[in-house]
Amino acid sequence: LQKLKKSRDELKAAEDAKANLPKFNREALDSLLTRRFFFAQSFKIYGGVAGLYDYGPVGSALMNNFLDIWRKHFVLEEDMLEIECTNITPESVFKTSGHVERFADWMCKDVKTGQPLRQDHVVKQVLKERLEDHEKLVRAGKDAEKEKKRLKLKGSILSAETKKEYEDLLEALDNYTGPELYQLMVKYEIKSPETGNDLSEPQMFNLMFDTQIGPTGQFKGFLRPETAQGHFLNFNKLLEFNNGRMPFASASVGKSFRNEIAPRAGLMRVREFTMAEIEHYVDPLNKKHVRFSEVANIELPLYSADNQLSGGGIFRMTVGEAVSKGIINNETLGYFMARIWLFLLRIGCDKTRVRFRQHMQNEMAHYACDCWDAEIENSTGWTECVGCADRSAYDLTAHSKATGEKLVVREPLPEPITRDILVVEIGDKAISSTFKGDTGKVRAWINTLKGTETAWDQDRAETLKKELENGGGKTEITTYDGFKFTLTNAMLKVVQKSEKISIREFTPNVIEPSFGIGRILTALIEHVYWSRDEQRVVLSFPPVIAPYKCLVLPISNNADFQPHIRKAVTELRKLGLSNRVDDSAPSIGKRYSRNDELGTPFGITIDFETLRDGTVTLRERDSMKQIRGSVSDIVGVIKDVVDEKTTWDEATKRFPSFSAGEE
Predict the structure, then answer these.
(1) 101: how many CB neighbours lie within 10 A of its CB?
(2) Upstream peptide bond of 202 is cis (omega within 30 degrees of 0)
(3) Which residues, 6+ apart, have CB-to-CB distance to 112 below 8 Å?
(4) What residues contact 605, with CB distance under 8 A and at least 6 apart?
(5) Percentage helix, strand, coil, to 5, in the chain?
(6) Which ranges of 264-317 would DSSP assign to H, the alpha helix?
(7) Adjacent-strand bridge partners of 255
(8) How confident is the chain (663 residues) per 10-residue block, as mean pLDDT?
(9) Beta pairing class for 81-82 and 248-257
(10) Measuring CA to CA, how many Å separate 133 from each of 147, 169, 600?
């Protein structure tokens, strides 16, 4: 209890500290990102398309650096098997996975304009605006009415009870279904935020982009909304490549596509985006992780399902304690949550603005054991950026049953065991004489009853046994392609037998961390954005992820400087350090500032002293401190700091302090 109280006090102090910071200027940041071409709306000269963005040189470099760190932090460090799968997927795959039926959001429409709106976003936006208007009017005091007219506020001062209701609803909104959200809309008289018009009752809208594969129009497919299914379909090949050893993980980076109802907030909700996903395959009877002790003492900010229901808020707890108390379901899930936390801090996210929120029970997929989202706070609120779920054995089992392909692990037992099992006895003659040309379809259906190549799925065998008994020795089946046939006891019979086994066959469970890269980068940019003064802004990316590592600035365009510029650039390139030369007309200070807003951590200045002794100055972005040394020494410092071998302060201790005057 004392630990929890201390944790809450620390979180409250962090919240108070954030409240005292200067108000974040989202418009100024958006202007910077557009002006410096981090990214821009696609097809802009044709009017643009909502939810589609192009990355410019800076944004592309930032994305590539993110992926490089991600691969080193996860794929390399965890010895994962990286794969790349196709974006176009046949409909049959997504029917099996459940996406065709369930990958949808609730949508409502403006009854007058017909504008489609995502229902939960409407409710969230309206309630947040009412709370914000309430705060403004309370601050205005006696002048509340004047302030309401001046700012054209739609809201009013709320009672303490209503304010608490709104706040509680916003915390639990992800837990509501479409019909439940509609009841809230009626109760709180929620209209379209843009027009004030009434909104229709909700309907489900599938988020997948459909397409046709081939020229006939008969083979339907979809652009994938996630990369995961390619992992599962290649499971047997991955297991074989890994020499049959368990546990292991596959990883992939690629594009995904979701036909969002109402894209918004820049890269936070888009229709085409890059994902990085991991599928870690683990024995369902042993979800311990061999490296769990390395992360057991890492403290995470947790927002459990129980605390969401009780209003208990976020608390800090070590991963080890959370797993031992059952708050986090198992060691492997906890291990990856800790690794995700370390990764987000490594790339520069503010640790006071990251939390892990557990899915509520009716929010979680029916097959999932546990699921936590790494949410990052930004100007739009808390946003899910990384999902970390225990998907159980759902996907491998579903694809195995649909195709007859056995997606299982076979491991020798220490000692053979005897067990009673159900076996399906097949009457081949009765089947072939009855179904003739359709015999192959019936046999294919029978094969789906097998859990492995040699063993029958016991649950399906039990179901078939009951169907035959209840049907008087008959049962009707539907094949995968929709054909219906009646089977009898003469064709199929389920009997119990004893068998001795020395091989254990099982379908692995899957722990899945899934990263929405555009969302993480958007939140990260907000976290590292600050103003040096009214004119100069800075993006304080850690050097490891900064789009460009170094700026090279000659103090003049004198031809004598060119050999020294080439030398500096060559040394930087040899060590794989991205750089830009800025030999434009503005002053050194303005050129520094122009590159501070790109997040460039270092600047090499070539001046007249360089012509005399070959030394250059190195300026660090955040502190503006400078050191002087030979090109090779200076480039070596940059390399060591970028590679996270040392810090700026440690690396520069051997250099004398240097001042080049005010910027």
Answers:
(1) 11
(2) no
(3) 195, 197, 198
(4) 553, 554, 555, 588, 616, 617, 618, 619, 660
(5) 40, 25, 30
(6) 305-310
(7) 274
(8) 56 53 79 95 95 97 98 98 97 92 90 93 93 90 86 89 90 84 94 93 93 91 96 97 96 96 89 97 96 98 92 93 96 98 98 96 80 95 95 93 91 87 89 89 86 74 90 88 87 89 91 97 97 92 98 93 96 97 92 96 96 95 95 97 96 81 54
(9) parallel
(10) 10, 17, 39
* Residue whose tokens read 């027009």: 195
| Tokens read off for 266 | 């820049």
pTM: 0.83
C-beta of residue 311 within 8 angstroms of C-beta of residue 371:
no
Put residue 223 in one of left, alpha, beta given phi > 0 → left and psi -120 to 50 → alpha.
beta
Q: Rounded CA gap, 234 and 250, in Å?
A: 10
Cβ count within 10 A of residue 145: 11
Number of alpha helices (DSSP H) and beta strands (DSSP E) in the chain: 24, 29
Q: What HEC string does 199-229 produce?
A: ECCCEEEECCCEEECCCCCCCEEEECCCCHH
Interatomic CA distance for residues 310 and 312, integer angstroms: 5
**Inter-residue contact 390 to 458 (CB < 8 Å):** no
